[in-house]
Each structure stands twice: as C-alpha cells, then as structure tokens.
Specification:
The protein has 14 helices and no strands. By secondary structure, the chain is an all-alpha fold. The two termini are 27 Å apart.
Amino acid sequence: MPVDHYENFPVASWVMPARLRRPVEVIYAFARSADDLADEGEAPPGERLRALAAFGAQLDRIEAGQPPEGGLFCDLAQVIATHRLPVDLFRDLLDAFAQDVVKTRYASFAEVLDYSRRSANPVGRLMLHLFERTEPAMLAWSDSICSALQVINFLQDVAVDWRKDRVYLAQDELAAAGIDESWIAQARVDERWRAFMASQVGRAGAMLESGAPLARSLRGRVGLELRMIVSGGLRIVHRLHRVRGDVFHHRPVLGTVDWLAIAARTLWFPAGASRPVAATAPGVPR
C-alpha cells in the first residue's frame, strides 16, 4: 500500500492469514469499484451519484436479508454475514465517495478529518472486525492510523488532486500561512510553502505515531501486516520531509531502498515504533 485508486487499504498479501485473504479482497473490490464510480471516466456528477446510490441500495438489500444483485454484492453479503461486519461502515465509504463528486474544498482541518472518518477509518474498523479485535482502544488507534494515511496521501497528491480541481488542504490553514491556491496552480515552492508543508507533514506523522500501539498490540501475521502498513506510511512521511514540500516536482514514491527500510523497521517496530517521526528527517525542524 498505497494501492492505485483506493490508497488506504491493506490488500490481502501473503502476510495476511489465509482465512482472511478472500474477505479482504471482497471488501477491497467493493471499495475500489465504488471509488472508481466517483473518480474515473467522463460521467457527469449526477450519473456518478446515481451509480453510488445503486451501490447503497444493494447494501440495503443485504442488511434486510434480501438477495443482492450481482456477483460482487453476493460475495459481499456472504462476507458480511460470516464475519458480522457492520453495514454502516460500507455506507460511510459510499458517503465519502459521493462527497468527492460534489465537494472540492475544505474549510478547516476538522472538515478534512470528517471526510477521513468516512473515507479511510471504516477500512481499519472493518479489518478489526475481521480480526475480532474491536475493543474501544483498538478502534481509536485504528482511526488514528487510517486518518493519518489519508492525510499523508493528500499531501503526496496536492498536484494530482489540483488537476481534478480538488484541494484537500484546509483553507483556513492556507490563509493563516499567507498562501492561496495560486501557489498550487503555479507549483510555487518557496520558504513559506516549505514551512507550511513541514507543519502539515509533521502533524500527519504524529497522527500516525499515535496509532502505533495498535501495530504492537496485534500479534502474529495480522500484526506483521499492520506494522508493514504503518512503516510504509512513516517512510512516505520521511520522503515528504526529504523533498521539503516540493510535491509538484518530486512526488514521494517508494523504491527498493524504501522497501528495505520498511522491512527493517517492521522487524524492529515492536521495540521502537514510538521514535519521533521528525527524527527520521535530518535538518527538518521538529
């Protein structure tokens, strides 16, 4: 991860316990398909919203115990029934995707987090239901990780989102920093922009760290998978610091060296995951 369109999803890898790979694949297929309805192709907004509403109607059928229509929803109904997954978490995903169709600016970071609560956090909560670990502390840590990964993705993709006429940076924080959208349009990277991005990246890294106890609490292959995900997110944070906010010309991506670092951190994670993120980026103010 991240994975193509739907960035904050732990795809069923060889690390995931075999019994959970199929459920994860089905949930991912639902999320990916719905996300594509909101983002891909040339369909007008009204058509996209109707398509997402049709997904919601299938969730209603599943919840009512009626047979859904289509192979994806039949598979999803079986996974939901077998693992007793809350249908409202799938509705939250659809609500976030529908919001992407109609909302392109966010007044405050609270609005960004509210979007993340529906676009990213349901994924972590669904995974915890599959793992049968839904204690309140586990859910809270999961929410921190998923929201952080969503925000990190927004910071990676400032330029990508701009081409879709979307800005996920909080408008009030841009204004407080003396920055407007012309910086993004012109790919302008000056000291003001660098300072703004350093603050944004630092906050996202701290959010991710705050959820790290979850990765240390889950055991076995499930815990290993999660430690890989958190370590990957922290590596992107490191890369964002390294480019000093210039995501226009140097969008952070993970290469071979990064994956080796992720593997090393994953093995070291249980004893040292709480190290401050900023310490991995020499020269970056904390």
